[in-house]
Amino acid sequence: MDASVDFPRYGFVLSSDGYLRSVQPSWVQLTGYARESVLGQHWRDYLAPAEQHQLREQWSRWQASQDPDFEADALYRLCDGSLLSVHLTLRRQGDQIWGYLTPQPQVQQQGRYIQQLEARLDALFRTGSQTIVILDLNHHILDFNQTALETSNLRFHREMKRGECFTNYVQPDRMEDFYESFQQVLQGRHVFKERIIYAADRQGYTYEMTYTPVYDAQGRIDAVCFSMVNVEHQRQIQLLLNHEQSFVTSILNATNALMVVIDRQGQIVRFNKACERITGYSSDEIRDAILWEALVATEDRERVRQLYQQINPQSQINNVQYRLKDRNGNSHFISWSLNVMPGLHEDGLYIVSTGIDVTDRLRAERALQESEAMLRQAQKMEAVGQFAGGIAHDFNNMLTAIMGYGQLLEQSVNTGEDREYLDEILRMCLKARELTRQLLMFSRKAPAESRPINVTQVIAQMKGLIRQLLQDKIQLKMDLDPSPGWILANALNLEQVMMNLVVNARDAMNGAGVLTLAIHRKHLKQEHHHEMFGRFPIGDYVCLSVTDSGCGMTDEIRRSIFDPFFTTKERGKGTGLGLAVVYRIVHEFGGWVDVLSQPGQGSTFEINFPILAEPPALKDPECKLVLYKLGKDVQHLIRSSLLDFACELHSTTDSDQLLTLFEQGNCPKLLITPLNAPRGNGTALLRSRYPQLKVLYLAGDSQEEMALLDQLGMNEDVLLSPFSPQQLRIRIQRMLNG
Model confidence over 246-264: pLDDT tens digits? Predict the structure, then answer.
């Protein structure tokens, strides 16, 4: 039925003798009378004439009695003169009477509803599969349904009867539990318990038992409803489901494959142990999180989101790769297979992702590719080096003859057009000599002698030479860490690397721009792979960077810059060996070069060398060098240029002190002095006493000094000013090595 359980009643209030004191708005709406016109009127005045006489006597008897309620059916006269059949209810409350009118159609509707409700309750009570017994407050049976009767016959072999004590159907070992539950119900609680009841064959069955209070009209508990349902079958099914779930979970957690189950919104609903091991997150931590927001690497996130949102029930996707990030932020390459699984609801779908960690495989493949690239580069460099070395040696011999004859001609040709041609020939010979020098350095097979050096000291000494290489419109900036760490290398080779990079940067800026040299310590947090230089472990490195504001380069050019004879300069302006030499030197000393460049945005060459774990230990110098009669500026230049030389430097301007240095033992091997110093002030005496002493003279280009060159003997050499630290070091090494 659509009828409501609660029916509207139209109320009014009477005085103790039956006159209207007030009426509710609903009464006014029902009868049509105005509120002011009815107050003070007797309630019987609104009944039909025939009803007034009949109800007068009934009203008088009720007035004389002590009954609280008065009920009667009557015809009520409405404002428009029509009659309405109503049920009248009056109830005493102090010195006034509360009255209600209920139209008879609603009363009849309420009666039908109550009858149907009682029929439904009786059907549920009698025919349900649940055992239901109604007990009074003394545990006696008031009523029971058919299921309770059948249960008593099956369990106790007796007919359940109304009026008997319900304890006859309670197991002795459950009696205390029954009384305790009953007392809780009498306190207004609902009690739910699960218990095992044994049948006559001692077979135990699981039942769910419920004790519920039953209230009377005054809200007092006047009965207890006991219900019981056999859940053994459901329990067995649940145990089976739990077993199957545990079995499936064990399989998922035992496999090494990653398994992630998400819903259509991307929320994670399952996350196996393999996923926990690789990500560092537990299943409880990650459940309900969005897969691509919580676990997928940032660079793959949008692609993965679109992939999962485009999956339909017919989709089956294999070999999809994207990266998972773990709790520490590390990325793992995973190869996934995606399948769609129906959910519990018809419109519910789950996406099952099964993955295999291919990080190690990809790393091995990348390492193999790098090894192959490095091998090809080494083979190419070796082949070109052998070829270039052979040509350079032969060409150098021919070049020596050409320069020799040219210098002889220079003595006989003083002026004129022929002298200009001769000067151009000699100038080109000097360029050719520089080319052969680079070819010989490039083709050198024996590794250069290396020792601990401070990169900052080497580069700082080259500042003047670098400034000379640059044009006036090129600004030089230097940001050198004074203590970046010691590396194992050769200072001369490092200077060659710097010279080659500076020249390239100068040419790239076309005469104007900013050149920045920087040295700093760099820490690798993870292993670095370089396709041409190999792998480099986690640790500290010295980074020497050369940055220009020039034209930059494309990726295609950047991949070829270390190839021998590759150049982007105009024909005749570049040999293509500068960066090939840089590659060989840096690779020889265990470093690598990163090149960062974009067309029109300049270039940065970052040369990285591993830092020595411990600073070099101080050792006794291998030789003594003496600076004699040199100015302070020249002394400072020489000392700065020889910081990494294993030599002991002494300086003096006094001839007696000079002789004393040689008489103290550990005789000096080299004397550095000006060429224009008086020849008889101690130098000649030293030469006579120590014929193995080597003397390096520093000279300018004056005619007096040039005239002295012919007087040089064995173990004597001259270095013309101005000279670079590199030239000084090379000359000293040659003299010391004989």
Answer: 766 666 666 778 888 888 8
DSSP-derived secondary structure for 207-232 = EEEEEEEEE-TTS-EEEEEEEEEE-H
Strand partners, 532: none
∠ CA(106), CA(109), CA(115), 5° rounding? 140
Q: ∠ at Cα 716 (714, 717), nearest 5°?
A: 130
Burial of residue 524, with CB atoms counted within 10 A of its CB: 0-12 exposed, 13-18 middle, 19 or more buried: middle
- Nearest alpha-carbon partner for 322 in 344, 293, 347, 297: 297
pLDDT confidence tier of residue 357, bands split at 50, 70 and 90 = confident
Are 695 and 673 spatial neighbours (Cβ–Cβ below 8 Å)? yes
Q: Is the dihedral of CA 106, 112, 115, 120 positive or negative?
A: negative
Chain segment 683-724, per-residue pLDDT in tens: 777 777 888 888 888 887 676 777 777 777 788 888 887 777
Output the CA angle 419-425-429, nearest 5 degrees.
145
Question: Is the pLDDT at 395 greater than 70, yes or no?
Answer: no
Radius of gyration of the chain (CA): 55
Residue in the structure block whose two tokens are 């003595």 = 411
Burial of residue 495, with CB atoms counted within 10 A of its CB: 0-12 exposed, 13-18 middle, 19 or more buried: buried
Rounded CA-CA distance 534/367 in Å is: 8
Question: What pLDDT does 347 receive?
Answer: 54
pLDDT of residue 693: 85
Return phi, psi of residue 157, to 5°: 60, 45
Helix (H, G, I), strand (E, B) or coil at 606: strand
Angle between helix 725-736 and 632-641 (nearest 10): 70
The b-or-e profile of 267-288 (16+ CB within 10 A means b, else e) is ebebbbbbbbebbebeeeebee
Mean pLDDT of 296-312: 86
Residue 190's CB is within 10 A of a number of other CB atoms, namely 10
d(CA 132, CA 228): 7
> Under DSSP, is residue 597 helix (H, G, I), strand (E, B) or coil?
strand
CA separation for the pair 185, 191 (Å, rounded): 7
Residues 569, 505: Cα–Cα separation, whole Å: 12
Geometric angle at alpha carbon 75, from 72 and 76, rounded to 5°: 105
Alpha-helical segments (H) within 35-132: 35-38, 49-64, 104-127
The share of the chain scoring above pLDDT 90, in percent, equals 12
Which strands sit side by side in the sheet containing 474-480, from one edge to the other?
474-480, 513-524, 539-548, 603-610, 592-597
The answer to pTM > 0.70 is no
Looking at the DSSP bridge assignments, the partners of residue 195 are 207
Q: Are strands 670-674 and 623-628 parallel, antiparallel or unpaired?
A: parallel
Q: Taken in order 15, 16, 19, 24, is the CA torsion positive or negative? A: positive
Helix, strand, coil share of the chain (percent; to 5): 40, 30, 30
Q: How far apart are CA 613 and CA 213, in angstroms?
A: 83
389 token code pair = 């070395």
Asked if 689 and 659 count as a contact pair (C-beta separation under 8 A), the reply is no
Measured between alpha carbons, how far is 662 from 594 in angstroms, rounded to an integer? 50
Query: Which residues does 107 contact at the CB level (< 8 Å), separation at least 6?
Result: 7, 87
CA-to-CA separations, 576 to 67, 556, 568, 677, 733, in angstroms, rounded: 125, 16, 8, 45, 29
For residues 299 and 515, give the distance between their C-alpha atoms in angstroms, rounded to a whole number: 34
Q: How confident is the model at residue 4 (pLDDT cuts 50, 70, 90)?
A: very low
* Inter-helix orientation angle 491-508/578-588, to 10°: 140
pLDDT averaged over the chain? 79
> pLDDT-based confidence at 132, cuts 50/70/90?
confident
Q: For 549-580, what is each residue's pLDDT tens digit?
A: 988 888 888 877 877 666 766 655 555 667 87
